[in-house]
């Protein structure tokens, strides 16, 4: 039986073949164009040797790109329009992007936001919302604003092939507005009345993460925390000591008190409860420590490869707040709480009582706290009977009491270089007295 093909079916079949052929050809062409464009983009964004770079994934392809080039592209209108409304996951939190075509401004909103820095400890600084604007002027100049709550700052940036230099200025702002950013984490804000203003200039270099801060505090005062009640507080330490030992005279003129000031807070009698100069120096010192840790792959968050503790910036007033109220966790929020108590203590208690509170409650390792307990344990005498070398020896332990107590128990001495540094800072001594003091330190080893 013979059959005859339908001419119309052959026509549609040939048309389908032609369509598939051209579709395949166009697809191959588009793929080639995309590969060429990707290659051009990869070549254009490839950073020069030694430049600041990061790895970006475009589908299955990973591209090494220069970060300054990415910033430049992100602030270019044709690309910024495509980013409008998108959310970018970052280390600090989800960042939502919004592009204003009229002003050529990109707004970045991090909500919630967590900021970390090895210079203030492992605990992040958490903020409900942080918003920044970015505008590019010409090819390499950036500027914008940074705001959180009622705190607003301006910033400027200079793009370079190997990095980004940022400078930020915060005009005088009420201190209470700054504290309001952390209201959920600082219970004292429910009762504290805070006055004064703070200002700040900061410089940040990327990718080195080198941060320089110049803070200012004017007229800060605090009321409502009840620190006046601490005037007659009894020490919680040395419960095994006799009442006579606990009541032994120990004032600001004693050798141990002077040695403690030399070791822990050399400007104790000059500052109002906080020391901005020491805060800035501690930040720079801890940045260097963090760099040394990274280079030697040290994993301990509080020690360098050589075993040196990260530098603190707490005054004796702040340390009293830590001992009596806030505890010892290293976090920026704890520092903010300590500042409130320190400022109020300076107004309600005065220097002499603050110093006595510190000496009565300070830790000295081996589960010891309080100067009298330490003097009895280590030298079998009252604190007011210590010699100058003994007083310096005890004061030198305070930067890391647990470590120094273990070192003393195992080797018979503490960090001698630290003790000599404390002796060198001890005020009210002539040259001959200081020479005798240094010799006395040697006899304690």
Strand content: 15-25%
| Model regions low in confidence, pLDDT < 50 over at least 5 residues | 32-38, 298-309
Sheet with the most strands: spatial strand order: 3-4-5-8-9-10-11-12-13
Count all strands and give the number: 13
**Main structural class:** alpha+beta
The main β sheet shows up as: 9 strands, antiparallel
Radius of gyration: 32 Å
Q: Helix and strand string, N-terminal first?
A: HEEHHEEEEEEEEEHEEHHHHHHHHHHH
Calculate the mean pLDDT score and round it. Answer: 80
Q: Helix share of residues?
A: 40-55%
Shape: elongated
Give the number of helices. Answer: 15
Terminus-to-terminus distance: 118 Å
Structure, explained:
This protein has 445 residues and is of the alpha+beta class. Helices cover 42% and strands 23% of the residues. The chain has helices at 7-45, 67-74, 77-83, 175-180, 243-246, 255-264, 276-296, 316-326, 332-348, 351-361, 371-379, 388-396, 401-411, 416-425, 431-444; strands at 53-58, 61-66, 87-90, 93-100, 105-110, 113-115, 125-127, 130-137, 141-148, 151-160, 163-174, 193-206, 210-223. The strands form 3 sheets. A 9-stranded antiparallel beta sheet has the order 3-4-5-8-9-10-11-12-13. The chain has a two-stranded antiparallel ribbon with strand order 1-2. It has a two-stranded antiparallel ribbon with strand order 6-7. Strand 1 (53-58) and strand 2 (61-66) form a beta hairpin. The longest helix is centred in the N-terminal third of the chain and has 39 residues, at 7-45. The radius of gyration is 32 Å and the shape is elongated.
